[in-house]
Design goal:
Layout: E1 7-10, E2 19-26, H1 27-42, H2 46-64, E3 71-73, H3 77-85
Antiparallel strand pairs: 1-2, 2-3
Helix pairs in contact: 1-2, 1-3
Length: 93
Amino acid sequence: MINNYAIEKNSGGDGPPVASGKFVMNASTMRAAASEVLCTHKGLCAAALQAYLTTYFDKAWGHFDVNRTGEIEVIKSPQFMRFLASDQYMSLQ
């Protein structure tokens, strides 16, 4: 998740970017990651994937982004994927 989808927060304030070590996902990066996970782990690909995401992604996003910050810590992405897939036992290894 970190290498392919996460965004590192800037701790430099208004100055030049400084790596913070804090990684988050926004709705766009989480949706891209969810597309990969649902296709590889649940067999939902192409049109079925898009229909599934259209139906369930916003609800899952709202469940995790309760303060409406527009981002979720990358460490919570496995829980997000399990919630989105409605499969709390899904192996994400």
